[in-house]
Design brief:
Elements lengths: L12 H8 L3 H23 L2 H18 L9 H20 L14 H4 L4 H15 L3 H12 L4 H8 L3 H19 L8
């Protein structure tokens, strides 16, 4: 069972109307509500804190610029999440390679773990470090499927592949993640 997306924030229509009119306080409220989900998504997909911050800024700028075109036929958070995913995918495509980002050592997003009990924060940090060792496309498939709840068909459309590509990346990534985390494969009795 998938937990709801961190993006699943109900935004009142009145707040959107105020933001459409360019009211600074309304735009700031939307920014504050969505900065952590956008940053976390970008960090997990790209593995680079600087690129994640760029995605956060670019995503929210695009959303504010195109807010007048949002018709409300779907939840606002779903539309914003799709803009963020597209920004991440554009950066992955522009890198044009499959190996993980190689810059300074990746540090887990400490803000994402604040408020967790120490053992849970340690587990979350280990997971973040393991994810950072996966190839970018594999990490993106894992994140989009397990955390954001995308189907293999949706992931295939986003990445320009097939559902079987998404499934194989998910299977390989899960095996690699288990190995990195030193988890034993579940056995069925």
């Amino acid at each position: 069972m998938n937990r709801p997306s961190a993006f699943a924030i109900d935004v009142p229509a009145a707040l959107l109307d105020r933001a459409r009119r360019g009211e600074h306080a309304a735009c700031e409220q939307l920014y504050r509500w969505f900065e952590r989900p956008v940053y976390s998504l970008a960090l997990r997909m790209l593995g680079d804190p600087d690129a994640a911050m760029d995605v956060l800024q670019d995503t929210l700028m695009k959303v504010f610029q195109k807010l007048h075109g949002f018709r409300g036929e779907a939840p606002f958070w779903g539309w914003l999440r799709q803009v963020a995913v597209n920004e991440c995918l554009m950066r992955l495509r522009s890198r044009g390679r499959e190996e993980p980002f190689e810059a300074e050592a990746f540090e887990p997003d400490l803000l994402a773990h604040e408020g967790l009990l120490p053992p849970m924060a340690a587990d979350a940090a280990r997971l973040a470090e393991a994810l950072a060792q996966l190839p970018e496309r594999t990490r993106a498939v894992l994140w989009l499927h397990h955390v954001e709840g995308y189907t293999h068909e949706e992931i295939a459309a986003l990445l320009g592949g097939t559902p079987s590509f998404s499934k194989s990346q998910l299977a390989r990534g899960t095996r690699r993640l288990r190995a990195l985390l030193d988890l034993k494969e579940a056995t069925h009795a």
